Amino acid sequence: MDLKDEVYLYNHARWESLAKSDALFARPYLDLNKESARDYLGLDRMGIKDELTGKNVLCLASGGGQQSAAFALLGANVSVLDISHTQLERDKAAAEHYGVDVNVFQGDMRDLSCFSNQSFDVVWQPYSLTFVPDSRVVFHEISRIIKKGGFYHLMCANPFFSGLSHEDWNGSGYILKNPYKDETLTSYPDQDWVYDRLKSPEKIQEPREYTQSLSRIMNSLIKEQFVLAYFSEIKSNYPGDLPGSWGHFTDIAPPWLEFIWYYHPNFLTGGK
Fold first, then answer.
1. Are 226 and 143 spatial neighbours (Cβ–Cβ below 8 Å)?
2. Residues 102-139: pLDDT tens digits?
3. CA R_g for the chain
4. What is the spatial distance between Cα 61 and Cα 156, in angstroms, rounded to a whole number?
C-alpha cells in the first residue's frame, strides 16, 4: 500500500487545517477527572465495567487530546495514532496538563505496522472509518495488534445516511442522493459548529468520506474473528428544531452507529 496515496494526502491536509483552526475535535479536554472520564467515554453505558489500570489502549485516528486524556486518567497505558502532527501535539499538551504519559504515533489507520502483534487490550476508534475507502484493511490491521479477549470500540457513519446533511431537506424529507454501495465517495459542508470560519487561517477542504456498508463492516469484523457485544444507533435530541436544521436532521434518523467488538479467535469453531 502506498501510504502517501491521494487518500492519505487529502486527509492529512484537511486534518492539519482543522487542528490549526481549533476545530471542535482538536480541542483538548482539560477539565476531566476519573469519574467524568468514564462518563465521557460512555463505558458504563456500553456495559464496560473493566478496570483499565495498566491496560494498553490504542486511540486510533483519535488525535486531539480528548479520548487519550480520558483513558490516561483511568490508569491505562495510552498510545495514539493519528494522521495529523498538530492533532498529536494536542494529545501531548493534554497529557502534560494531567501529568500523565501518552505515546503518540503519526500515521495512517490502514497501516499499523509500528505496533507489534497482540499489543493492545483496547482499540478505541471514534468517527474516522469513513475517511478511507476500504474498512477491511483497517479491521485486518486491528485484528493483528489486539490481544485475545480485547475489545474494539468503533463509532462510524450510519451508511444509509452517509453523505446527507440538513441541507438535503426538500420541503418534505431528507432525500437520499448516493447509491448504497461500498466505497461511494461522498462529501458535505462542515457544520458551523465544527470550526470558526472567521478565525480559520486558511480555507479548509470539505470532508471526503467513503460509504462503508453495514454488511461489509459486520461481516468483515466477524471474518477477523471479532464477536459483537454492543450496538447502538446514535441520534441527537433537539425537540422543536425546524425541518432543514442540523438539529432536526439528526433527530429524524440516527446518523451514527456505535459498536463494541471483542476479539475471540476461533470462537465460532469452539476454540479449535
1. yes
2. 999 999 999 999 999 999 999 999 999 999 999 999 99
3. 18
4. 12
